Amino acid sequence: MANIISDETMEYVGILAKLELSEEEKTQAKKDMEIMLDYIDKLNELDTTGVEPMSHVFPVHNVFREDVVTNGDDSENMLKNAPAKKDGAFMVPKTVE
Amino acid sequence: MGLLDDTAVELGKKIKSGEVTVKEAVMACLDQIKKAESTIHAYVTIDREGALKKAEEVQKKIDEGKLTGPLAGVPVAIKDNMCIAGMRTTCSSKILDNFIPTYTAEAVKNLEEAGAVILGKTNMDEFAMGSTTETSAYGVTRNPWDPEHVPGGSSGGSCAAVAAGECFYALGSDTGGSIRQPSSFCGVTGIKPTYGTVSRYGLIAYGSSLDQIGPVGKDVTDCATILEVIASHDKKDSTSLDRTDCDFTSALVKDVKDMKIGIPRDYLGEGLDPEVKEAVLAAAKVLEEAGAVVEKFDLSLVDYAIPAYYTIAAAEASSNLERFDGVKYGYRAKEYEGLHNMYKKSRSEGFGPEVKRRIMLGSFVLSSGYYDAYYLKALRTKALIKQAFDKAFATYDVILGPAAPTTAPKLGESLGDPLKMYLGDIYTISCNLAGLPGMTVPCGIDSKGLPIGVQLLGDCFQEKKIIRAAYTYEQSRQEKIICPDMSEVLEKAVE
Amino acid sequence: MAKQYETVIGLEVHVELATKTKIFCGCSTAFGGAPNTHTCPVCTGMPGSLPVLNKQVVEYALAVGLATNCEINQYCKFDRKNYFYPDNPQNYQISQLYLPICHDGKVEIETTAGKKYVGIHEIHMEEDAGKLVHDEWEDCSLVDYNRSGVPLIEIVSEPDMRSAEEVIAYLDKLRLIIQYLGASDCKLQEGSMRADVNLSVREVGAEKFGTRTEMKNINSFKAIARAIEGERARQIELLEMGKPVIQETRRWDDNKEYSYAMRSKEDAQDYRYFPDPDLVPVIISDEWIDRVKAVQPELRTEKLERYKKEFDIPDYDAEILTSSKHMADIFEAATAICKKPKKVSNWLMVETLRLLKEKGQDPEDIMFSPEHLAELVELTEEGTINSSVAKEVFEKIFEEDVDPAVYVEEHGLKTVNDEGALRSTIEEIVAANPQSVADYKGGKQKAIGFLVGQTMKAMKGKADPASVNKILKEILDA
């Protein structure tokens, strides 16, 4: 197996993705990631020199909106599903120390 | 079974003529749901009241001559990753357990305007990540042909519901084969249109550059009719295309005499179940006999599609799913210490293992130092795959092959080995990378009594060609593949 | 001898564009409004919502790029910047990293040391974040997405500045360019223009740059100057002690005049940028660029030259008037009506600036209409009101934008031109103040001032001072 994922890397990716895995999950996830990366490494067999990365399949461009207000006050709907709210705002744990 | 044997278009005609009322059609489905759900579990949410109320409204409009389309009054099921205002939408995830959107997906809106009656939301792999509908947080869906087997995925609920007569047609979504593979496993017909044909507004994203909504129906006519209704140029979706050739039903013509059909040798090699291979080649033979030129050719790059696909889809998913954080909607952990712990706990408790696996992989391939090696490499591979298809379509009108290497596996067989599960997507994935239209049509039944599907791929914007080939095949083949007799299946399941 | 240090500064300036709607949805960008009343599924990151680009954002970004001598990326794209924070509803910000709309520009600045160019590395378009309010009562934070999705451009300079003075001159130059283009009102206090300061120090003569820090949260020109001094001192102190400067983001606390590291274990600073698959590329044709150039309004330098030529006002006045696009607009509009540039300029240069200073406001905050100023000039010129009444009326115009003619009428402030009435009042005053009359006759010319004052008081200020003087002299000298 070519790819070795360290515990630190798993920890780091967990911070990026905001996921906290149990020890058991971590071991499994590490193994899965190594297998997948080995598999993805297969792409290195391909010579892609000079090939432009393709994000969009079709050459669609310049899709715009005109600068016209179309939305009114929809705060009630926007807050309908909020797990916690107060005074028309979404409530979250304190963001400053 | 009676009424439930009708296709959506047949039912639509009967409703229009007054032979059947909308309520009768809805009741037939609700009765079937009542009978079948304890075994099949195709739905996450069933909206009985809403459907009956809507049936009355739609009936009135039909009687007044305000609704005249082919799908007016026909009951439909919607995959649970499409938002419908006022109807719980979960993506089969605990993280959206209590989410009730206040807006409706454009594709669903198009159906509603055509007089569709929505029965409920169908089960799926969590966030459409999976090929068996076993990663749902709300339990597995079973295959109506044999409840010991999976229906495929991720649109397994939609395909199972159609096959079991729990609706007349359904909407699914396809990111890497999620309409075509379960259609094959459930013996129904499904289309993944050209990227940009159906608006993605209101479709909860998995891989934004790959996702497309499409129809699941009982035959080619149904699918062409549904696609014609849901296709639209939507100003709310920047990737939506302004097409003027969406009269798909005009391609329901039994004639392939001018067609050249290619079968990739790469799709017939190792890993393909011999029974599936035989059925697919027999389907090709039917088309050849109908006048098409059928040849085998080398498509190339097939082995690279899966690693490129999983890199791109996981990367996009890792970003698309960041918004599920317990702040604005959905699940928030009960206990936490501070903001970041709230994020981590809500997400770790709210997402299932497969979703977490893909988010981790996606975050890794985009992280500092790996972006070029993984993500850009995958996008370059995608460009090469597109080129390979361009070359193939310079010669062939339609590419024909299997939709999946096997028929539906047994429940629990696939999840243990993710890589093996991913390899099952080998025939469907390239189509999403290249933005192509593809469809699955039933073409046989294996020795276990499970259906086999044949997949037809067309060049971009060439839905009409694959619809014509599929229609010709459907009309020309000897025996019809009809959906299983559910009363038999359910009786057996009880034993 | 102590080492001599040089400060090297680059700026990241965020400017809120003056569009009516947000960058990716049809919600209003208007200030104020109760929390979340300018929101929709797109700018609150609801599942399944999709962004569609506001064309005006591209127009403004392009105009600013051209006015700052930038090259234009005629093929530009949007990327996602991924990081978790509650003010960012999708937990990614749509921005531009790989192909920003403008790059490699420059602007000329002038300081006491002379003129120089500051290079512009790039300008990119992006979306603003929502607002967090900290609720002490509940010990939590409240999120308002009204600002979420408001369009911004970020102007990233080269590390070309060496002092606070240069930084201020650069910011002022940008402000004027952008205001003149109408692309933003650039109010630092309200946050429609914000600057992050990248700063490093090195020994004078050193070739390599030192390690830089980035300071955020600076919201006035004065605070920027203090932050630069404070951070320079902090870094020099570290170097003098032989300690390294750490590359990090710091938050400037203007009250404590010190910057604090913003790092935490949970901030990995790895934004995993990738092209946003929900948006398509923007292709800017040569024709589009030409069109934006063609409608480019007169910029500050051109306007200044024109004022000096066209209007009979001192050069100094022209400088001040054009230092705010808003003030220049009022000057031109009022002058066009009353044709008295010198008078209009005086009102702006003296009374307006005095009142702004008193209220701690900027010229951008002027809210009166040029029509009313012009009318006031006309009323004064015709002699309908005298200059002291005019001052009083102007304060009302400044504060409430009253119509001066109506105000004068309603409050009976017209100058009294009835000579008979004036003469009899003066006769009474003269009779009542024999001592002043005696002083005047005894050669004390100044005593007449007291009598004029008494008359004006008796007339409630509505007399024309010149007439009062004339009649007084007639009576006294008789």
From TrEMBL, chain A:
SUPFAM superfamilies reported for this sequence: Glu-tRNAGln amidotransferase C subunit
Q: Which Pfam families match?
A: GatC (PF02686)
Task: Tell me what reaction this enzyme catalyses.
Answer: L-aspartyl-tRNA(Asn) + L-glutamine + ATP + H2O = L-asparaginyl-tRNA(Asn) + L-glutamate + ADP + phosphate + 2 H(+); L-glutamyl-tRNA(Gln) + L-glutamine + ATP + H2O = L-glutaminyl-tRNA(Gln) + L-glutamate + ADP + phosphate + H(+)
Q: What class of enzyme is it?
A: ligase
Q: Which family does the UniProt entry place this protein in?
A: Belongs to the GatC family.
Q: What is the recorded function of this protein according to its Swiss-Prot or TrEMBL entry?
A: Allows the formation of correctly charged Asn-tRNA(Asn) or Gln-tRNA(Gln) through the transamidation of misacylated Asp-tRNA(Asn) or Glu-tRNA(Gln) in organisms which lack either or both of asparaginyl-tRNA or glutaminyl-tRNA synthetases. The reaction takes place in the presence of glutamine and ATP through an activated phospho-Asp-tRNA(Asn) or phospho-Glu-tRNA(Gln).
Q: What is this protein called?
A: Aspartyl/glutamyl-tRNA(Asn/Gln) amidotransferase subunit C
Q: Which organism is it from?
A: Jingyaoa shaoxingensis
Automatic annotation (TrEMBL), chain B:
Q: What function is annotated for this protein?
A: Allows the formation of correctly charged Gln-tRNA(Gln) through the transamidation of misacylated Glu-tRNA(Gln) in organisms which lack glutaminyl-tRNA synthetase. The reaction takes place in the presence of glutamine and ATP through an activated gamma-phospho-Glu-tRNA(Gln).
Q: Where is the Amidase domain?
A: 24-466
Key word ATP-binding present: yes
One GO term in the molecular function aspect is:
glutaminyl-tRNA synthase (glutamine-hydrolyzing) activity
Which EC number applies? 6.3.5.7
Task: Show the catalytic activity.
Answer: L-glutamyl-tRNA(Gln) + L-glutamine + ATP + H2O = L-glutaminyl-tRNA(Gln) + L-glutamate + ADP + phosphate + H(+)
The domain of life is Bacteria
* Species in which this protein is naturally found: Jingyaoa shaoxingensis
Q: Which HAMAP family match?
A: GatA (MF_00120)
Q: Keywords on this record? A: ATP-binding, Ligase, Nucleotide-binding, Protein biosynthesis
Q: What InterPro entries does this protein map onto? A: Amidase, Amidase_dom, AS_sf, GatA
Family statement drawn from the similarity comment of this UniProt entry: Belongs to the amidase family. GatA subfamily.
Gene that codes for this? gatA
Q: How does it assemble?
A: Heterotrimer of A, B and C subunits.
Q: List the active site.
A: 79, 154, 178
Name of the protein: Glutamyl-tRNA(Gln) amidotransferase subunit A
Automatic annotation (TrEMBL), chain C:
Identify the gene encoding this protein.
gatB
Q: What range(s) does the Asn/Gln amidotransferase domain occupy?
A: 329-476
Its recorded name reads Aspartyl/glutamyl-tRNA(Asn/Gln) amidotransferase subunit B
Assembly description: Heterotrimer of A, B and C subunits.
**Similarity field:** Belongs to the GatB/GatE family. GatB subfamily.
Transcription found in the keyword field = no
Q: Which PROSITE patterns match?
A: GATB (PS01234)
Role summary = Allows the formation of correctly charged Asn-tRNA(Asn) or Gln-tRNA(Gln) through the transamidation of misacylated Asp-tRNA(Asn) or Glu-tRNA(Gln) in organisms which lack either or both of asparaginyl-tRNA or glutaminyl-tRNA synthetases. The reaction takes place in the presence of glutamine and ATP through an activated phospho-Asp-tRNA(Asn) or phospho-Glu-tRNA(Gln).
What is the originating organism of this protein?
Jingyaoa shaoxingensis
